[in-house]
Design goal:
Distance between the termini: 41 Å
Low-confidence stretches: 42-57
Shape: globular
Number of domains: 4
Number of strands: 22
Helix content: 25-40%
CATH class of the largest domain: Alpha Beta
CATH topology of the largest domain: Alpha-D-Glucose-1,6-Bisphosphate, Chain A, domain 3
Structural class: alpha/beta
Radius of gyration: 22 Å
CATH architecture of the largest domain: 3-Layer(aba) Sandwich
Length: 474
């Protein structure tokens, strides 16, 4: 069996189903994951304990999947690969990625596998891997080792004289109670909310919140229900795509809602719209949540990626915190947060990471924080009013994505044209000037060059976007 090694990304595993990734490939990855975990722990694989019953001190892995068409098929292959190696499995069934992370962090298990391809179109399948306590497994800390184990021996087969056991566990109620326990919801005002679930796992959150907050009215849920076919305008369950926002914007205006919230398919990314239907650039939310957490943890460190930084650094420094830039990607952010002991981390892509969630990203916490912030303001203060100062001071582009034939040549052209700037190479290239800045980086999940531009004035931003785009297209 030939393995397409391009499916092994910097922080997860994704490929087109079934040409790049299928049940046979997934089975081999699960077996290689066992070998990686057992060797990294310095112990051979052996029959494992179960979460509920105890037993031999071997490996136990928690497994979950989202609504993708390949989800159940991949789950069966993963569980077979694990149990045949003598590893016990806690099967969570249909869950969001942040629910899997919560289970990996709180249950007596040695790691976790979430079967998802995040925001990719329906033809994709994939896996997100974590270790003990939900510790991320990235390209730097294991994914490429797992790739090499699979690639070096496509006949890799780990068996055990005693197969592992499988237990089913419903984590959802416990997870939602955990989220709510971190907030004083008694002071929350009653809001009218429009939600966009992108036919994904955000539906579980909406249904629970409808029961828990009966006075908070989800006046409309767009792209509702679980559907791995993703019948969206662009067929891609990603709120960052402007064309996928039209329905939630229309619903906000029709219902006079206070805010809108949207999730990607596996619900680990969260996005917002103000009461006017205007999309809230994630960097503004990152800045607001940074302030929120620095009030909770004075002097704390805030980790963020390099795509958009000015508004976040401004808010962190204004509130006495310490900003820390690092590579984009959930594994890199988590690893840096653990290293720094940071209280909050964020990405421009809509990922949010919290000390309160074991340094793991969470797609529901941001909604509660925004509701808390809105509830703490004066009567009648709108979301757009809270954002006004930031929007008028920091101008930020949408992320622009380009297919580039020669990446090295493109980056060289940027370096040559903007050689008079302060250039940083934390993640891709960042070109810094006193009144504007941009970051250009290769995507870790797709064959794209991603560019983000920020400036001190709207006109300057527009001019620099044109300038940068023209250089890419030459």
């Amino acid at each position: 069996m030939n393995i397409d090694t391009s499916i092994f990304k910097a922080y997860d595993i994704r490929g087109v189903y079934p040409s790049q990734i299928n049940t046979e490939v997934v089975y081999k990855i699960a077996q290689a994951y066992v070998k990686f975990l057992s060797e990294s722990e310095g112990a051979r694989v052996k029959p494992a304990r179960t979460v509920d019953q105890g037993g031999d001190q071997g490996l136990t892995i928690v497994v979950g999947h989202d609504m993708r068409l390949s989800g159940e098929e991949f789950t069966e292959a993963v569980i077979r690969g694990l149990t045949e190696a003598g590893v016990n499995v806690v099967d969570l069934g249909l869950v969001s990625t942040d629910m899997l992370y919560y289970a990996a962090a709180t249950l007596d298990v040695d790691g976790g596998i979430q079967i998802t391809a995040s925001h990719n179109p329906k033809e994709y399948g994939g896996l997100k891997l974590v270790g003990k306590k939900g510790k991320p497994i990235s390209g730097d800390t294991g994914i490429y080792q797992i790739r090499d184990l699979v690639n070096a021996n496509s006949k890799l087969q780990i068996t055990n004289s005693k197969s592992g056991t499988v237990i089913q566990k419903d984590i959802k109620e416990e997870y939602f109670e955990f989220v709510i326990s971190n907030f004083d919801t008694s002071k929350f005002k009653n809001f009218k909310i429009v939600a966009n679930t992108n036919f994904g796992m955000g539906n579980l959150s909406v249904e629970y919140l409808k029961k828990y907050f009966p006075k908070t009215n989800f006046v409309k849920v767009v792209y509702e229900g679980l559907d791995g076919n993703f019948p969206l305008p662009l067929g891609r369950p990603d709120p960052l795509i402007p064309e996928n926002r039209a329905e939630i914007i229309a619903a906000l205006k029709e219902h006079g809602a206070d805010l809108g919230v949207a999730w990607d398919a596996d619900a680990d990314r969260c996005f917002f719209f103000d009461e006017n239907g205007d999309f809230v650039t994630p960097a503004y939310v990152n800045a607001l949540v940074s302030e929120y957490y620095l009030q909770k943890f004075p002097g704390g460190k805030i980790v963020h990626d390099t795509r958009v930084v000015r508004v976040i650094d401004y808010m962190v420094e204004k509130n006495g915190g310490v900003p820390v830039q690092t590579k984009a990607g959930h594994s890199f952010i988590k690893e840096r947060m653990i290293k720094e002991g940071a209280v909050f981390g964020s990405e421009t892509s809509g990922h949010y990471y919290f000390k309160d969630t074991f340094y793991l990203d969470n797609g529901l916490f941001p909604l509660f924080i925004v509701l808390d912030i809105l509830s703490s303001t004066g009567e009648g203060v709108k979301f757009s009013e809270i954002l006004k100062t930031l929007r008028e001071k920091f101008f930020i582009s949408e992320e622009m994505n380009f297919k580039v034939a020669n990446l090295a040549a493109a980056l060289s052209a940027f370096k040559q044209k903007y050689s008079d700037s302060k250039i940083e190479e934390i993640d891709g290239l960042s070109f810094n000037y006193p009144n504007w800045r941009f970051n250009v980086r290769k995507s870790n999940t797709e064959s794209l060059l991603r560019i983000n531009v920020e400036a001190n004035a709207k006109e300057l931003l527009e001019d620099k976007i044109k300038e940068v785009v023209e250089l890419v297209k030459k």
